[in-house]
Amino acid sequence: MTRITYIFFACFLALSTSAACSKPASNSASEPANAATAAPSAQRITSEGVVKAAAKSVEIPAGGSAEAVVRLTIQNGYHVNANPPTYPYLKATVLELSPSEGVSVGNVIYPQAVDRKFAFAEKSLAVYEGETDLKVLMRADKTAKKGERSIPARLRIQACDEQVCYPPGAIELQVPVNLK
């Protein structure tokens, strides 16, 4: 064997030994992943993840009407565009309810917006932040069957923070109704 061959084998042996004795760079299956060191891009923000919607139960007398309330809870540091939005290209917050047997649905009443100035916009934008209530008048037919039911609803939203807006999303929910 030549001198170069000996040097090659010696280097190869040294590298193999050090690789076998070193700790692997990635976590093995038995080691828990550390969430604190996860890259921020790994945490995907969605409009549905930032906004929660809950409908309060509503009682309607036969032949009468009552106001249903859907409460939006928007995570701190985020907002959604008001209805109507400041600019036509912005996605407004929209609540859609489907009539159910014996129950008709009126127009949604959107709350007063908060005007906020953002660095990315020339003028203040009309937005909803924190907790806000959307209201809708519901009417029961006189002949409607009494009892409990759910009215399907869909909330279309687009959440934004101080710098970026996230893809629009939709939240499906049910409005609990008790016909008396």
Note down, in words, how this protein is organized.
With 180 residues, this protein is mainly beta. It contains 2 helices and 12 strands, in the order H-H-E-E-E-E-E-E-E-E-E-E-E-E. The strands form 3 sheets. It has a 4-stranded antiparallel beta sheet with strand order 1-3-9-6. Strands 2-12-10-5 form a 4-stranded mixed beta sheet, with no helix packed on it. The protein has a 4-stranded antiparallel beta sheet with strand order 7-8-4-11.
Which regions have little confidence, pLDDT < 50, spanning 5+ residues?
4-41
| Element string (H = helix, E = strand) | HHEEEEEEEEEEEE
- What is the CA–CA distance across the termini? 100 Å
Task: Let me know the number of strands.
Answer: 12
Biggest sheet: strand arrangement? 1-3-9-6
What Rg do the Cα atoms give?
A: 29 Å
**Largest beta-sheet characterization:** 4 strands, antiparallel
> What is the 3D form?
elongated
> How large is the share of residues in beta strands?
35-45%
Alpha-beta classification:
mainly beta
| Average of the residue pLDDT scores | 82
Helix segment count?
2
* Percent in helix: 10-25%
